Amino acid sequence: MAAAAAASPGRVPALPEHASWVSGQARAQYSNKLELMLSLVGYAVGFGNIWRFPYLVYAHGGGAFLVPYALSLLFLGLPLFILEMGLGQMFRQSALGVWNKMDLPRLRGVGAAATLCTFFITLYYNVIMAWTIYFLGRTFGAAFSRSGLPWGDLGEQCPESLLIVRREAAQSPWIIDSRTGLFNVSHASDFWCPLSGLPRSASQVPDGFVAVFSRPSSCPGEAAVRFWQQEVLQQSSGMDELGGIHWGMFIAFTVAWLLVYLTIVNGIKTSGKVVYVTATLPYVALFAFLVRALTLDNASLGIQFLVAPDFSELARPYVWGRAATQIFYSLGVGFGTLIAFASYGERHSDYARDAVTAHLSSPASWCSQCSATWPMSCRGSILALRATASAACRTSDCRGRA
Question: CA-to-CA distance for 378 and 292, rounded, in angstroms?
């Protein structure tokens, strides 16, 4: 008893092997601590950070959203992370078996629910992986055929842009840039925009202005949207129209599931080695995306629009709830996966220190937080390009709202 009490918090004490809650010692283990830490970081760095987090920042107060998010991370995410790490390491079981080891068999449904939830999330995550594989396949196909990317540009097929110009300036040959087909920045004061959004039809023209149509010579933003909607999604009109099989996506989806199978076919013997690539490659890709995004037109405008703080949003309880919910996606707590990871770790490791190390005080923490901040910069820059490339009205006033 005294020895157990003297044990440091977070470290599993050396208990007798006949103790009822000590699981089989023959359970497989990671080859080293690095494999466990990479598994934790790779698990935390996913679509929850790269896809979902930038959207929440944009929709709920910009930089102000980081306040409830940071507090939720500290007071909700980290304690749950330590708890799940401890349960897995002590009982050497997954989310299903840990309840039996705690003599709480009636709570096995909690583990079953977490496993089922993880399964459903995996289904739609693999759809997103299939989209990625499909884009990669089309990219390599274009490279080998030496043709342009199918979402690169529409050229002469670019749709016409509606510009609402002051009547006395409409006949000026300089109002439209003849090289690009876009408005001339030096005449920005001669254009009109509605109070919100962008002009969509000539019926919106106010007194003293006329509608002018111009076809841009380049429209990469519109090309990307068309490729996504018409070639990738190929959505039907509704459930009553099933449509045919999209063979490109079918192959990509099959490849995605095949990669998942090959990763876990031999348990941690294979997944422990795969994480050396899957946990580090996202940062190489994100850095490349960041460099490319920051060189796009109006990148600074997009980042400013994305992260500009609106502290009035903090008065809404809904925003705090969204921040707390995001913790489960950012850290992956509550799904039982951390329990499984920790169960394959070293039996007497200090799990509390491992949890803090993974997210607060090591390079893994830097990676985890960069997985949230880098995509914000990338998406803000890309959205700014998308808005200015496809907006119907391109004055400086409208560009900010687009």
Answer: 8
| E strand segments, 256-317 | none
Q: 343 and 256 in contact (C-beta within 8 Å)?
A: no
Angle at which helices 268-278 and 281-294 cross, to 10°: 20
- 0.90 surpassed by pTM: no
Residue showing tokens 């929440």: 56
Half-sphere exposure of 96 (CA within 13 A, CB side): 5
Q: Quickly list DSSP for 319-350.
A: HHHHHHHHHHHHH-TTSSHHHHHHHTS-TT-B
Helices and strands (H, E) in the chain, number of each type: 18, 2
Q: 298, 185 in Cβ contact below 8 A?
A: no
* Contact indicator for 168, 372 with CB cutoff of 8 Å: no
E-assigned strand segments in 187-332:
209-214
Residue-level pLDDT at 127: 93
What does the pLDDT look like over 193-252, one tens digit per residue? 766 656 666 666 777 888 888 888 888 878 888 899 889 998 888 888 888 889 999 999
The Cα–Cα gap between 212 and 167 comes to 10
End-to-end CA distance of the chain: 66
Q: What is the four-CA torsion angle of 301, 307, 311, 315, rounded to 10 degrees? A: 130
10 Å CB burial of residue 67 (0-12, 13-18, 19+) is middle
Token pair, residue 101, equals 């080891």
